[in-house]
Amino acid sequence: MATDPYPEFRLRLPNGGPEARGRQTDEMGTNGSRRFVVGPGQPVRSEIVPSLPNSVRSLRELLISEGRIKPSSTWPGRLETSESITFNSPSEAGGVLTGSSCNGWVTWKTEDGRPLGDFMPGASWGPNRAWLVRGSNVTGLDLVQRMWLPEGRVTLAASRLRQGVAEGISKEQVRSLVQEDYESTATYSQKQDLVEELHAFLSRMKPGDTVCTISGGRLYVGEISGEVEQTESEDHRSNLRRPVTWQDEGYAYEELPEELQQRLSIQHDVVELTTVQAVIDGLGLTDEELADEAEAIERDPSVEIPALAARRELELPEPTDELAAELLVHKTDWLREVRDLLWDDRQLVLYGPPGTGKTYLALKLAEFLGGGPEQVKLVQFHPSYAYEDFFEGFRPQEDPETREVAFRLTAGPLRELADLASREGNRHLPHFLIIDELNRANLAKVFGELYFLLEYRNKSVRLTYSGDDFALPPNLFVIGTMNTADRSIALVDAAMRRRFAFVELSPRTEPTSGLLRRWLKSQRKGSEPAELLDALNARIDDPDFRIGPSYLMKKGVYRDGGLERTWRTKILPLLEEHHYGEGIDIEKRYGLAALRRSLPQSPEPDPVSPA
């Protein structure tokens, strides 16, 4: 007597319902998946969720109309099977019984908790993954509309791959086959891509995985429902095939979430989408429908539903009057405008003369909008700063065990912050990179291919060193500061200007013009330093060289002799450099004595409070 290779599998109905039982078979269904049998007297949920695929819904309605599923006498309020029913796949069986979309390879389990997928030959089992497979332009044909959707499958050309390649083959074995079979017909880089794509299709994909494809500006989503099949197709466009249960409708590409668009923009025939699987799972469903879907799976109530978690809105909080008071900004509306510019463009530059508080404001604003300093990283540019310092590059590192030094690929501050921002659980939290003295570096050299990503946030690029496909996370914001006194801002090219919003901080306009007075008032000090600064800036013709208030907002200025000392050692040297070679008497024009004489109120200075 032959031994059944498959044990009995069980599936728990939603809301703590009873268990249904069934068996996997080796018989192939109409789309190439293995059929699954549910015997008589098995419980069936009476309700269905709105997202149940039409094909499963129609089958369920047919089984009920034929009396093969009927009201249950064993479980009041539920239905039950009246006879043995053979389904095309475990997922189809689970969908009919639970009334919702169902990954049967995971939800059907043995008595000791092992999923059905563990018993399938040749496949690599583990957590389910999501994939993009391109089929809209396979040697000039759109196979998605022509074959994939009508016939319920996904294919890969593999036009020269020999017959008899086994499912579950290792990457090294695939590499050897590609090297031999495509020896003179593909370039080195084409062979590298082929190895990755063939290995994914043959050995990493498995029944129950999500598969996506794009055609006619729409994204189509399905579930792989069987093992790989190798055929000799006449046109060599579909030599490798897998059965797929496609959803009924596609989704408009331009309406997809940005992080999904980023992954879909990667230019390979097979791309893993597992990092955005929760986003894919939630397409076309409301929060209530997602909650109903989750009920159809035995789920720990303390565990968050991934598709709902992925929908957490990214938000930049509205600046408050308290923040404006802390930063001594004249109007909260000015802060709100800066916040709106960041929200719209995601990159912003604060520019102005020295001492206008650009870096301080950038840090404080980022900490407020990001919810704390943990989401803020600061880097300072300088003339020798390069892409390898900023993003990634090879740097010498010592091996802690052998003490040998070797060059290893090392992430820079932007890559580190981008990786942190894109982690699951962090994607709804704003992260900020502050770039101080942005205009002191060679920006084209530092940003490299990242220039493109600053403008096209929904795209990805292939990185120079690691070869990874990379996109800037939607929740990563960049605030740069530029000093106008050194004139290097004039060298910033049009490409960079187009990618950033620019906000001026100047002693001639608010919030900078009245900042020192507001600070002196908050510290209960006399107004003379502010009057002197106003008089000084009135004598400086070039607005880019006017002096910012931060030089006079330090405790040392208000100790005995502190104002004179600061003026002599901090402010006058800046003006001497500005007027170098012009023969101007700096002390006579900008010195404290000359400025005090020009003040209309009194020849005597206002008292300065001691620290």
Helix content: 25-40%
Sum up the overall morphology in one term: elongated
**Whole-number total of structural domains:** 4
State the low-pLDDT regions, or none. Answer: none
- The CATH class of the largest domain is identified as Alpha Beta
Considering the protein shown, what is the CATH homologous superfamily of the largest domain? P-loop containing nucleotide triphosphate hydrolases
Q: Work out the helix count.
A: 23
What is the fold-level CATH name, i.e. the topology of the largest domain? Answer: Rossmann fold
**Strand elements, count:** 24
Radius of gyration, CA atoms, in whole angstroms: 33 Å
Based on the coordinates given, report the CATH architecture of the largest domain. Answer: 3-Layer(aba) Sandwich
State the separation between the terminal residues, measured CA to CA.
Answer: 98 Å
Largest sheet, strands/sense/barrel: 8 strands, mixed
Provide the β-strand percentage band.
15-25%
Mean pLDDT: 90
**Structural class, from secondary structure content?**
alpha+beta
Model description:
By secondary structure, the chain is of the alpha+beta class. The chain folds into 4 domains: 9-119, no CATH class; 130-309, ph1033 like fold (Roll), CATH 3.10.590; 321-504, P-loop containing nucleotide triphosphate hydrolases (Rossmann fold), CATH 3.40.50.300; 515-598, no CATH class. 33% of the residues lie in helices and 18% in strands. The chain is built from 23 helices and 24 strands. The strands form 6 sheets. Strands 8, 9, 10, 11, 12, 13, 14 and 15 form an 8-stranded mixed β-sheet that branches. A 5-stranded parallel β-sheet has the order 17-20-23-16-24, sandwiched between helices. Helix 5 (171-181) crosses helix 6. The longest helix is centred in the N-terminal third of the chain and has 17 residues, at 188-204. The chain is elongated.
